[in-house]
Amino acid sequence: MELRIPAADDLHIHLRNDERTLAAVKAVREGGACRVLAMPNTSPALATGEDATKYRHYLVMQGADFDILTTIKLMPTTTPEMITEAARLGVSAGKQYPLGVTTNSEDGVSDFRAMYPVYEAMAQSDMVLSLHGEVPGAFVMDAETEFLDELHRIHRAFPKLRIVLEHITTQAAVEAVRSLPDNVVATITDHHLDITLDDVIGSTIQPHHFCKPVAKRPSDRKALNEVVREGHPSFFSGTDSAPHLIADKENACGCAGIFNAPYHMQFLATHFDALEMLPRLADFTSKFGAEFYRLPPSGEEIMLIKRDVLVPNTYDGIVPFKAGQTLTYDLAWI
Amino acid sequence: MELRIPAADDLHIHLRNDERTLAAVKAVREGGACRVLAMPNTSPALATGEDATKYRHYLVMQGADFDILTTIKLMPTTTPEMITEAARLGVSAGKQYPLGVTTNSEDGVSDFRAMYPVYEAMAQSDMVLSLHGEVPGAFVMDAETEFLDELHRIHRAFPKLRIVLEHITTQAAVEAVRSLPDNVVATITDHHLDITLDDVIGSTIQPHHFCKPVAKRPSDRKALNEVVREGHPSFFSGTDSAPHLIADKENACGCAGIFNAPYHMQFLATHFDALEMLPRLADFTSKFGAEFYRLPPSGEEIMLIKRDVLVPNTYDGIVPFKAGQTLTYDLAWI
Question: Is Lyase one of the keywords UniProt gives this record (chains A, B) (predicted)?
């Protein structure tokens, strides 16, 4: 069994700007992606179009041999002028983090209303608003669902603004995005199609399954898989792959993030095949997202080949998603 | 400010039977307890009255200078005859673990109905049934609530059986126990009065806050504190203190359990004072539980003294609850 499809667009990835970047960059093509949207919560953050442009150059110097769509981080200090300038420099999206809910979000937003002039500039520049959709300070199991009111408010205020609700984890988020027009979409990660909170804090505590938003209930996972099976074009793939060194995960206060990029398409082919929805894979990973971001076809293709692949226990000092497990699909570049 | 009260009865503690036992034993008096109910999920488990008796001797050899009430572990292999013999040897309780939900529960129970002959023998021997109340295989946030039906069924079948629903974490469990007669009671741990799931998997993942049942919602924590504030005699203190070496917590698959024994009463005095319910402390820690287990007054007393105490980062290779934090009450034996 072989499946030849366009290479993946990973429309949400963390490549960082430190000793982890080489591994993170290397993993992209190994996992079958040829285009990525690189998140701006590096340290320091990417605040301007110039920062984003420099970051793309940095990634290329680190070996990135794939297309990089850039982002800037929307912070309380972001101005409409910064948006206009970033758009002029080709930045694809502005990413907004809620204050304090995940890695490097100490400069995140708590007053969404105060960001409206920024959103207005984004709508005018046709820049995508990328949202980490959790309410700061809300209980961890409710934070995404409580954010959905905010999503509806932003959409009502800026009906033309293109919005991505990133890495959704709940049935409620699926239903909210489904209820909105096609300029409001969602990304779904590999791991949220696969794990639930039981895999994070079931009988043991498993930091390599911890990410934000955290995986939720079996019914939520089911809703995510169902909307992908349906082939709804408002839901597409973004890995949220985040490289954290083992010591930063396995400690008293471990970081949020799952490193799924190196076996991204191998895992998804395995997962989609198990759920008998392999024909939906290419649209999810390589079409709907590109259409939303108005990208031309990449022209690159990968072959997914039915044969066992053992995911290693570590990958350059990072524990990858599915470490030590066997996937049933391998990947080759054509 | 000083508070002189009877020393604590810790009616749920894990002292283990290995290199951690010395520290676990030493912590008991340091935390203000003079009597404990020692849990039987050692390795190997305490299956019989003879096992329990030997274990008490072992603990004394490890330096235990406090009264030890013993337990046996109820397993699919437990017989009514084993109950009768254990009762004859003075075992206080039979502890039942659901299959696979926590540390050393691989030999736990999944078919509760099959245990009824054992419960019958316990009722006849007046031995306490101690329940880890989670349904095996249920979603982690629902497992305790789903068990409450089972609790009601067991109580209906054995209305005279004395039952402890251990380390409850939910408003639903509070309401269930409150609705039942005074032979069905609950223990509440130190940590469940203090933390929620946000302290386990909020913006970071914190294995030293991970226990089973896992801490739940703010509304659940509120219900636990409210029932203690009310001074309801069916709710009393059991720390569920469990010593796990740092390496067994801070890894890819960390153990469940929080080591709160060494600062047990110092923490509770601090917590009760902050909630302005210090007058309820002695009943919760040193009276209601003893009455349920029909223990005479211990005759021992402790003094809780209002002065700052810094909880160390580690305690004999174990991270204690509240590590690195300052409590506002110290403790002295009288």
Answer: no
Contacts (Cβ under 8 Å, ≥6 apart) of A225: A193, A275, A277
Q: What is the pTM of this model?
A: 0.96
Tell me: the pLDDT tens digits for A177-193? 999 999 999 999 999 99
Distance from CA of B250 to the nearest CA of A (A): 5
User: Which tokens is B12 given?
Assistant: 């749920």
Query: Angle CA(B308)–CA(B313)–CA(B317) in degrees, nearest 5?
Result: 135
Angstrom distances, CA of residue B59 to CA of A47, A276, B19, B85, B91: 60, 56, 12, 21, 15
pLDDT over 90 at B102, yes or no: no
Confidence of residue A105 (pLDDT cuts 50, 70, 90): confident
B139-151, pLDDT tens digit by residue? Answer: 999 999 999 999 9
Question: Which CATH code for domain A7-299?
Answer: 3.20.20.140
Region B85-94: what's the mean pLDDT? 98
Give me the mean pLDDT over the B37-54 stretch.
Answer: 97
Question: Does pLDDT of B104 surpass 90?
Answer: no
Interface check B159 vs A, CB under 8 A: no
Q: At what angle do helices A116-125 and A143-157 cross, to 10 degrees?
A: 60
Cα B184 to Cα A167, B160, B229, distances in angstroms: 44, 9, 19
Whether residue A265 is predicted with pLDDT greater than 90 in this model: the reply is yes
Residue B308: partners with Cβ closer than 8 Å, 6 or more residues away = B326, B327, B328, B330
Question: Is there a catalytic annotation at residue A240?
Answer: yes
CA atoms of B322 and B328, how far apart (whole Å): 12
Q: What is the pLDDT of residue A104?
A: 81
Report d(CA A244, CA A226) in Å as an integer: 30
Please say whether the beta carbons of B280 and B5 come within 8 A.
no
For residue A240, say whether it is annotated as part of any ligand binding site: yes
Domain boundaries, given as residue ranges, for chain A = 7-299
A141 touches chain B (CB under 8 A): yes
Q: Average pLDDT of chain A?
A: 97
Q: How open is the CA angle A182-A186-A187, to the nearest 5 degrees?
A: 135
| DSSP 8-state secondary structure symbol assigned to residue B111 | -
| Interaxial angle between packed helices A80-88 and A116-125, expressed in degrees from 0 to 180 and rounded to the nearest 10 | 20
Residue of A nearest to B207 (CA): A252
- Whether residues A253 and B206 touch (CB distance < 8 A) is answered with yes
Q: Which among A201, A217, A255 has the least Cβ separation from residue B204?
A: A255
ipTM: 0.95
- Active-site entry in A51, A240, A273, A283: A240
What's the gap in Å between the CA of B188 and the closest CA on chain A? 20
- pLDDT beyond 90 at A102: no
